Amino acid sequence: MPRYIGLIGYPLRHSVSPYFQQAALDYYQLDIRYEAWETTPAELPDIVKNLIKAQNIGANVTVPYKEAVLPLLDEVDDLASRIGAVNTIVKTGDRLVGFNTDAYGFMEALDREGHFNPEGKRVVMLGAGGVARAVGLVLVRNKVASLAITDGIFERASGLAEDLARYVKQAVAKPKDRGANISAFQWQELSSAKTLEKCALIVHCTTIGMKDSAQEGQSGLSFEVIPKDVLVCDVVYNPLMTPLLKLAQKAGANILGGLPMLVYQGAASFKLWIGKEAPVDIMFERAREMLTGGR
């Protein structure tokens, strides 16, 4: 009798997680099925509650439920609690435990694929949702000089900036060590090149440009404002070359797509569920195959 792992989110037509996670499960010849569980907000509590059934192992959580799922769990690990977002649920006995592997996935991608060390750098982050919370915390932990956050809803950006500033204040060991300078700014300021001119890294953490989203084909930044030689990282992975990445490349910036973060966070989730190292090369191969039209 097969067991199941699900992907909880809405919408899910763009997702390749079921394909590369299934390839990893098949590599170990496990009788486990990874399925897409497209879930409306009204269905979320019941979908999470059903994870406790015998046939279920756990789930991934994606947009827009990474924050909403927290109160539905029995326990949340320290990192996910600090971030304020969960992307992985593991059934442990009769309890549902939440984890966050996005932070790990982002840093692995930034290091291995982007060849970028954020220490001492100025960073601008677009978006303040679940993914941005993980990205923001891990950048602060890796000693960025400054992190400026914006979001279509300014209160969300300022709220995340305040959360991270509190964390910095608590984490700084000595008064002379100031830690990262955290700030929030209005989305409209992205229309000015001056907003981005001194940053070394731009991280896009919204769904703008994502396939099958309401803003498919769009970019959060215009060509004119993207600095040359900055690293532009888009967490959107479908399409592989988002509108933002195309504009950034044209502007002479370095680019990092969202696929490496997706696969590395997925590999960390796999280990939490299965207790084995994920076959990362196989996961990458299958994900790329799906994104370039394979089946």
Rough outline = globular
CATH architecture of the largest domain: 3-Layer(aba) Sandwich
Roughly what fraction of the amino acids lie in strands?
15-25%
CATH class of the largest domain: Alpha Beta
Oligomer: single chain
Radius of gyration: 19 Å
Number of domains: 2
Give, in order, the helices and strands.
EHEHEEHEEHEHEHEEEHEHH
| Low-pLDDT residue intervals, each spanning 5 or more residues | none
The main pleated sheet reads as: 6 strands, mixed
Termini gap? 26 Å
The count of DSSP E runs of length 2 or more, i.e. the number of strands, is 12
How many individual helices? 9
If strands are numbered along the chain, what order do they take across the biggest sheet?
A: 2-1-3-5-6-4
Structural class call reads alpha/beta
Overall mean pLDDT: 96
Summarize this entry quickly.
This protein has 295 residues and is α/β, with parallel strands linked by helices. Helices cover 34% and strands 19% of the residues. Helix 1 links the parallel strand 1 and strand 2.
Describe the model.
It is a single chain. The protein is α/β, with parallel strands linked by helices and 295 residues long. The chain has helices at residues 17-27, 44-49, 78-83, 102-113, 130-141, 154-171, 243-250, 259-274, 280-291; strands spanning 3-9, 32-38, 56-61, 75-76, 88-92, 95-99, 122-126, 146-150, 181-184, 201-204, 231-234, 254-256. It contains 9 helices and 12 strands. 43% of the residues are buried. The chain starts with a strand and ends with a helix. Helix 1 runs antiparallel to helix 9 and helix 4 (102-113) packs across helix 5 (130-141). The strands form 2 sheets. Strands 2-1-3-5-6-4 form a 6-stranded mixed β-sheet. A 6-stranded parallel β-sheet has the order 9-8-7-10-11-12, sandwiched between helices. The mean pLDDT is 96. The chain folds into 2 domains: 3-100 and 260-291, Leucine Dehydrogenase, chain A, domain 1 (Rossmann fold); 103-257, Rossmann fold (3-Layer(aba) Sandwich). Strand 7 (122-126), helix 5 (130-141) and strand 8 form a beta-alpha-beta unit.
